[in-house]
Amino acid sequence: MRIFLTGGAGCLGSNLAERYLEAGHDLLILDNFATGHRESLPEEHPHMTLVEGSV
Fold it and tell me: How many domains does the chain have?
């Protein structure tokens, strides 16, 4: 499944991202890093695309 996750670097979003990736889903993560941290996410993953921005 392809999933669009906003706020993926925050507390809840990073935990969801980890679970979705473990389950084999493809993620497009959008985060402006106002409160989230880039370090909360894997540096690189073949099924993850990270975009810095805001809705």
Answer: 1
